[in-house]
Amino acid sequence: MDAVLENSDAVVKAFGYTGLLFVISGLASLLVGTVLAALRVGPVAVLRRAVAVYVTLIRNTPLLVVLLFFRIAGPKVGLRFDFIDVQVAGFNLNNIFTACVVGLTVYTSTFVCEALRSGVNAVPLGQAEAARAIGLTFGGAMREVILPQAFRASLPPLTSVQIALLKNTTVAGAVGVFEAFARMRSLTNDYTTQTVMIFVVFAIIFVVLVELISALSYAIERRWKVAR
């Protein structure tokens, strides 16, 4: 415990990086995943098949491989993030951080896509037919009728996806972002006699963060039920 208290500033900053990775990638993956889900169930057969192949490919690729691509292989083929170097409240949001955000977004959005697709499939067919009957285009029907209901139906799997994203941020430590897991590894190397306690403290903090996500999801679900 002394090791954590003595390095509390570094620990807080490490969890700050974890939080930034989670929030930015989480919001971006919801946006990208929603677009992918709309294309996945859309009327254009070529786009449906292309998105299906893309989602299957990314979902079955290890996250570390995806992050290594954007961090190492990407720049070799011109995919660079060197133009990004921002300091926000002491956090360095540089090209390495951005590459990890992009990698996490690309990976997580495919899981969001599949969760939302299951939600779309849960919406009664009559809802889509009614939307088309009153003159809504496919995009309008998705935006006004289908997606709002799909989000309600798929809230539990979406919550699981976001919890998985929080855990997946630990992989960013392998490619240069000094987030919580990387800081824990550094502390256990420096304080070998306190390894177990350091691990327990970090594990408890992660459990608390997961519980906060679950509580937020539960609150949203209850609000939607009341709104009905």
Structural overview:
- With 228 residues, this protein is mostly helical.
- The chain is built from 10 helices and 2 strands.
- It has helices spanning 2-6, 8-40, 45-59, 63-76, 95-122, 125-133, 138-153, 155-168, 180-190, 195-227, and strands at residues 86-88, 91-93.
- Strands 1-2 form a two-stranded antiparallel sheet.
- Helix 2 (8-40) packs antiparallel against helix 9, helix 4 packs across helix 5 (95-122) and helix 5 crosses helix 7.
- The longest helix is centred in the first third of the chain and has 33 residues, at 8-40.
- The mean pLDDT is 85.
Topology:
Blueprint: H1 2-6, H2 8-40, H3 45-59, H4 63-76, E1 86-88, E2 91-93, H5 95-122, H6 125-133, H7 138-153, H8 155-168, H9 180-190, H10 195-227
Antiparallel strand pairs: 1-2
Helix pairs in contact: 2-5, 2-9, 3-5, 4-5, 5-7, 5-8, 6-7, 8-10, 9-10
In short:
α2 (8-40) packs antiparallel against α9 and α8 (155-168) runs antiparallel to α10 (195-227).
Features:
228 residues, mainly alpha, two-stranded antiparallel sheet, 10 helices, 2 strands, 78% helix, 3% strand, globular
